[in-house]
Amino acid sequence: REGAEALALPGMKETLTSDNSPRVVFIELHPEFLPDFGATSDEVVTIIESYGYAMDEGKQRADQIHCIFRKTS
User: Fold this and answer.
1) In the chain, which residue ranges form alpha helices assigned H by DSSP?
2) % of the chain with per-residue pLDDT over 90
């Protein structure tokens, strides 16, 4: 569901921090719906950064933000 990004990422922690973690992750943020789940775009970015990723690109598209994160460690 749009806006549940902050809930989905912790469920992916094991995958995103494993030895075989993806080198690149694409996330479509929905700032309009994030407050429904008690989150903000900045909080979602902080979560994925805590798993060793850095934003490579973020692009606004209508009411969404498309983000590409690359593994840093």
Assistant:
1) 5-11, 13-17, 41-50
2) 90
